[in-house]
């Protein structure tokens, strides 16, 4: 509803209408317009003549406010937000919903080439859009996949089927890669922050987003107990406060990434957890990136006839 009061008095705007006396400065419209609007259902006339006649405003008549370039009405995710999944760069679903609804219609395809924790595709799916999510990090793809698997069917939204396509890396090229370059690359694929400094890294090749140390062993032979011993010294030296905190709270104190691990190191890791509450997680490279031997190509030529 809106007022029909005129901002300034004019003789043709001061009249009584169906028992309702005009405002002090008159109505906002003429008598002819008042009759026309009543027939069109555009005014509300109260039964009580002591109450004002008002104009009806319908939703399709209101254009609303233009979206501004600064969106400060959407809050960042709080640490306790229900939608938080723990991905370091996670965006609020409300933000992606506004973008998707501004730019697409139901049934359109939404592409996110840096899908990360999957917020874009989760919102697109809920808004009945088709979607494609891409990320160079296999761990990001796995996080997004888990998020989409947790979707719940309801009366209004049905799960859309989707396919996860992971790249397969050439094992020989991985083995031949420069050691430092490989360390930086695999730590990044793992979702961590690589140590890109040259020279000795004192046994720490990177950290997780929460500061947990990461060590990479590139050679294909099984990583042994000696690596674990030196890594324990390195992670305690790296951040004594964090090491003590993770140990006390039963959190992971460090990650060792390798192609394979010996039984000796696997058993020792289990003992450390049970006896000293020190948790070291062994991560197989195959669980971070899928790899295989390159395909063999064989050409066979058969002579059909002379010179053919």
The helix-and-strand class reads: alpha/beta
Tell me the CATH topology of the largest domain. Answer: Trna Endonuclease, Chain: A, domain 1
Percent range for β-strand residues: 5-15%
Query: Distance between the terminal alpha carbons, to the nearest Å?
Result: 90 Å
Helix content: 25-40%
Overall pLDDT confidence: 88
- How large, in whole angstroms, is the Cα Rg? 34 Å
Per the principal axes of the C-alpha atoms, what is the gross shape? Answer: elongated
For the record, the CATH architecture of the largest domain stands as: 3-Layer(aba) Sandwich
The largest β sheet comes out as:
5 strands, mixed
Count the strands?
12
Uncertain segments are: none
Number of helices: 10
Indicate how many domains the architecture comprises: 3
Helix and strand pattern: EHEEHEHEHEHHEEEHHEHEHE
